[in-house]
């Protein structure tokens, strides 16, 4: 890992514009450059100089490093022997009972395994992670403590924000006192899960979560798997709270929000407009099958839609890829984003909307002063990177070359 405070890359492939055939974008223009890094920022972007004493980027495409906006770093089976998901646990409460049994055993090796999982995510170009951590009577504060140890050990190579996640319910188990304590700690969001089906009340649970967020200057990011009336009411509750409390605007998210994939077109339009007005975002792992999320419509209304891997290898799901480009490719294939222009826009789901070119093809990244968090890929342009899930060759986090 390079920790020098000032260095330069040469032979860096950057996108410079679009090539058109009439009104259609048919190609992405690129050129080779030198990119100078100072500290954690990009200092300058200069014409390429083959003779310059610099790190050779070998013509690899440089893009903004990826952000995984929904993960569970504390709760995974990565690093343990292979284990597929069990068909015997069919409900969230089934999983809660299983976790209560297994968490004490998992905690024994969680520091080592979480480190390996972060290494895996980094190998696929991710430099920033929003991670939920269990807060419940079985875990106590240990999930958070172990996660903090790993993040401190890797603070030069990974960024993170943390969500206190009462996976076992706020009141279904005696988690409310723990949630009140953890809200005072150095975390970023207060979480929750299916308040009606787990705790039996939307209002009681959500009132506590929102008040803790307001009192402690935290955001909100709740898991909501419920569909139908209770799912809709929970989202509407958060919309109303965000409208009443401007401090929550832009800091309130609903993860999964599967109910949005089961509404009529008219209902979805109304909900999307209300989410946008309140500044409430949606975080999706891009499910498919019976639930295809209305991501294009949400984006049309200006709703912030964040994407994450969620389960990578755990007892909830077998198939998480741990690769944000694969998530972007899944979005492109699900919603028909197949053109050069559309594929280049889809990259934004992996980078939290930081893109080399704006919608008209004007170069907007990288610029002097930008955060030096970079990923280098064996690709000719971002459209190809998304469509082909191009190999990641190098990662830089805030000026530190990870590999």
UniProtKB/TrEMBL annotation:
GO terms for molecular function: hydrolase activity, acting on carbon-nitrogen (but not peptide) bonds, in cyclic amidines. InterPro entries: Amidohydro_3, Metal-dep_hydrolase_composite, Metal_Hydrolase, Metallo-hydrolase_Enzymes. Residues 175-403 form the Amidohydrolase domain. Signal peptide: none annotated. Gene3D superfamilies: Metal-dependent hydrolases, Urease, subunit C, domain 1. It comes from the Bacteria. This is Deaminase. It comes from Taibaiella soli.
């Amino acid at each position: 890992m390079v920790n020098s405070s000032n260095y330069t890359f040469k032979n860096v492939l950057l996108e410079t514009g679009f090539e058109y055939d009439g009104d259609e974008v048919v190609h992405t223009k690129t050129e080779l450059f030198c990119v100078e890094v100072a500290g954690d920022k990009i200092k300058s972007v200069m014409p390429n100089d083959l003779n310059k004493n610099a790190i050779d980027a070998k013509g690899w495409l440089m893009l903004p490093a990826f952000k995984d906006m929904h993960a569970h770093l504390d709760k995974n089976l990565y690093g343990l022997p292979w284990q597929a998901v069990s068909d015997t646990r069919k409900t969230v409460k089934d999983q809660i009972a299983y976790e209560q049994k297994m968490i004490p055993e998992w905690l024994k090796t969680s520091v080592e395994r979480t480190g390996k999982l972060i290494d895996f995510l980094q190998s696929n170009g991710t430099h920033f992670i929003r991670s939920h951590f269990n807060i419940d009577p079985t875990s106590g504060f240990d999930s958070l403590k172990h996660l903090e140890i790993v993040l401190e050990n890797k603070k030069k190579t990974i960024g993170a924000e943390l969500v206190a996640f009462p996976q076992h319910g706020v009141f279904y188990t005696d988690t409310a006192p723990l949630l009140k304590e953890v809200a005072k700690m150095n975390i970023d969001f207060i979480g929750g899960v299916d308040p009606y089906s787990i705790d039996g009340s939307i209002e009681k649970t959500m009132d506590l979560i929102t008040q803790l967020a307001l009192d402690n200057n935290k955001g909100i990011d709740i898991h909501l798997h419920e569909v139908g009336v209770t799912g809709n009411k929970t989202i509407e509750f958060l919309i109303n709270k965000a409208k009443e409390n401007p401090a929550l605007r832009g800091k309130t998210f609903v993860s999964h929000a599967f109910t949005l994939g089961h509404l009529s077109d008219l209902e979805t339009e109304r909900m999307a407009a209300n989410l946008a007005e309140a500044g409430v975002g949606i975080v999706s792992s891009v499910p498919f099958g019976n639930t295809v999320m209305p991501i294009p419509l949400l984006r049309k209304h200006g709703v912030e839609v964040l994407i994450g891997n969620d389960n990578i290898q755990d007892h909830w799901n077998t198939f998480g890829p741990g690769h944000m480009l694969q998530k972007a490719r899944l979005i492109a294939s699900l919603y028909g984003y197949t053109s050069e222009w559309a594929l280049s826009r889809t990259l934004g789901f992996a980078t939290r909307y930081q893109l080399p070119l704006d919608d008209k093809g004007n170069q907007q990244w990288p610029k002097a002063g930008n955060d030096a968090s970079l990923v280098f890929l064996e690709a000719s342009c971002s459209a190809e990177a998304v469509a082909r899930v191009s190999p990641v060759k190098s990662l830089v986090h805030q000026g530190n070359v990870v590999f």
